[in-house]
Write a structure and sequence with these properties.
The chain is α/β, with parallel strands linked by helices and 247 residues long. Helix content is 44%, strand content 17%. The chain has a 7-stranded parallel beta sheet with strand order 3-2-1-4-5-6-7, sandwiched between helices. The chain is globular and about 45 Å long. The site of NADP nicotinamide-adenine-dinucleotide phosphate has 27 residues, from helix 1 and helix 6.
Length: 247
């Protein structure tokens, strides 16, 4: 019988102060686990810890693009059974409006932070045998979309790195997978709505056979990848997009 239970497991969740990351924290706690929740916004971290209970949710503030803050996080945590990399950012702009600065700032949080944090945790021995690493890709890293050059590149690179990491860490029985969500009604979707406008978003939703998703839909997929039920799954990308890429 498949086991989706996370009792006794400690999961590091980045991007825990908002949207998908916050929903992942709630899903882990609901499944019996505890979270080490991280983000930059102190008040939202404190609210999360209050909501989930301090004994089930340890909140640690860190800017993951800052090497010193990342190192401090690695030093503080221990005995991790998994990581869900929810932190990320969006940059939508036509190719003619891109800049090196925008590219570097997006790569720093979407690609470098999860790769460098994961490898530093491995090097420091903070991930237990049979741990599960869940990277947050995107359908933007799988299919092209106008205005997504920087975002698509960062997410495609992350999902590719996840496959290589899965091969390297299999000898320690650590699994590495990516999620590739489509449009989810969370912080980033609101940014897209602001950039594209209501009419364009309504038209875009028609391309989703099941409509846009909720943060809880992605959190459920993360919970599965973290759980013993996924013990034989590594090096893959689980698309959760309401059928958007099925065509
Ligand atoms: N929403 C979607 O439609 C969608 C679709 C596909 C993929 N995704 C991916 O799913 C993830 C979450 O998306 P979301 O919509 O839930 O986003 P969101 O609500 O905007 O949340 C982003 C999270 O990332 C954290 N973060 C950003 N920069 C950071 C930094 N430098 N250091 C530490 N934390 C940082 C934020 O923390 P603070 O606010 O505390 O700074 C926040 O908790 C992202 O990786 C996104 O690319 C989202």
């Amino acid at each position: 019988m498949a086991n989706f239970d996370l009792t006794g497991k400690t999961i590091l969740v980045t991007g825990a102060t908002s949207g998908i990351g916050r929903a992942v924290c709630a899903a882990v706690v609901e499944a019996g686990g505890r979270v080490v929740a991280t983000g930059r916004d102190r008040s939202r971290l404190a609210a999360l810890s209050t909501d989930l209970g301090a004994e089930r949710c340890q909140a640690l503030r860190a800017d993951l693009t800052d090497p010193e803050e990342r190192d401090a996080l690695v030093t503080t945590v221990s005995g991790l059974d998994g990581i869900v990399h929810g932190a990320g950012a969006l940059q939508l702009a036509p190719a003619g409006f891109l800049s090196e600065k925008k590219l570097r700032s997006l790569e720093a949080i979407n690609y470098e932070a999860p790769v460098l944090l994961t490898t530093a945790l491995v090097k420091a021995g903070k991930l237990k045998t049979e741990a599960s690493v869940v990277l947050m890709g995107s359908v933007a890293g799988l299919v092209g979309a106008k205005g997504h050059v920087l975002y698509a590149g960062s997410k495609g690179a992350l999902m590719a790195a996840g496959r290589a990491l899965a091969l390297e860490l299999a000898s320690r029985r650590i699994r590495v997978n990516s999620l590739a969500p489509g449009m989810v009604r969370a912080g980033m979707a609101e940014e897209a709505q602001d950039a594209l406008g209501d009419d364009a978003m309504a038209a875009h939703e028609k391309e989703y056979p099941l409509g846009f998703g909720r943060p809880e839909d992605v959190a459920a997929a993360a919970r599965f990848l973290l759980s013993p039920a996924a013990r034989w799954i590594t090096g893959t990308t689980l698309v959760c997009d309401g059928g958007f890429t099925a065509r």
